[in-house]
Amino acid sequence: MSASSNAAQKFDPARANEYQAQSRIALAGYDACHELSACMLTATLGAGSAARVLVLGAGGGAQEIVTAGRLEPNWRFTAVDPSAPMMDIARANLEQKGLAARTDIHLGYVDDLAPDQIFDAATLIGVLHHQPGEEAKRQLLRSVASRLRPGAPLILAGNRYAYTSQPLLLAAWGERWRMQGAMAEEVQAKLGKILEGADPPASEEVVAELLADAGFEQPTWFFSSLFWGACLAKRATTT
């Protein structure tokens, strides 16, 4: 079973149903991150442009599509996610928001897409830190790069520190849950779960190295919230 398959199994029906509410607690600034991601793409591609955007890990609320689709009415999206329960939630939300007609749904992985599908931009939000080990992360980024035209932007967002390397941030993350009403036992359970459940890159420098290895230019960081960071990197125009 591949690393991506193992990551997909985390998002069973129970976790899918709680995803949107819990994500907004775990990531302070969840909506702001998605809004700024859309703004960064528009600033790169141009307001009013016509673009095809690849959205990896779109399951859940498809917030990337909802936010960017509201800003740019001429963009079309291809939503990719291997979790059926998460994609069901995304599909329902896109239909409710009137974006289903502008979105192609693909249940599976980026490597399953037709070879001739090339995109003007891509987003990879909350996905990379679920890939165990640097090689799995590198391979995913290479697969994304192969789907982008030269110079196309990628929004990459996720946790970008080894959790145990930042004890103050980890403690603050626990207090964030307590602020939202979690009891002490629940906070400890969530801290244990995050330590076991993901494998983020060790630093922003490692993220930049992974992107460079996959064929992207130096990233521009534009959002930070405790462990979480978001950047934009363009696919290199030369190899």
Keywords, please?
alpha/beta, 239 residues, seven-stranded mixed β-sheet, Rossmann fold
Q: If you had to describe this structure to a student in words, what would you say it looks like?
A:
There is one protein chain. It is globular, with a radius of gyration of 17 Å. The protein is an alpha/beta fold and 239 residues long. The protein has helices at 3-8, 13-26, 30-45, 63-71, 84-96, 134-145, 167-179, 184-197, 204-214; strands at residues 51-56, 75-81, 103-107, 121-125, 153-159, 220-225, 228-234. The protein is built from nine helices and seven strands; from the N terminus they run αααβαβαββαβαααββ. It has one domain (3-163, 200-234): 3-Layer(aba) Sandwich (Rossmann fold). A seven-stranded mixed β-sheet has the order 3-2-1-4-5-7-6, with helices on one face. Keywords: Methyltransferase, Transferase. Pfam families: Methyltransf_25 (PF13649). InterPro entries: Methyltransf_25 (IPR041698), SAM-dependent_MTases_sf (IPR029063). One of its GO terms (molecular function) is methyltransferase activity.
Concise description?
This protein is of the alpha/beta class and 239 residues long. Helices cover 45% and strands 18% of the residues.
Helix % is 40-55%
Please state roughly what percent of the residues sit in beta strands, choosing from under 5%, 5-15%, 15-25%, 25-35%, 35-45% or over 45%.
15-25%
Average the pLDDT over all residues and give the rounded result: 90
What's the architecture, going by CATH? 3-Layer(aba) Sandwich
SS class = alpha/beta
Globular, elongated, flat, extended or rod-shaped: what is the shape?
Answer: globular
Query: Could you say what the CATH topology is called?
Result: Rossmann fold
- Overall structural domain count: 1
Q: Give the number of DSSP strands.
A: 7
Rg from alpha-carbon coordinates? 17 Å
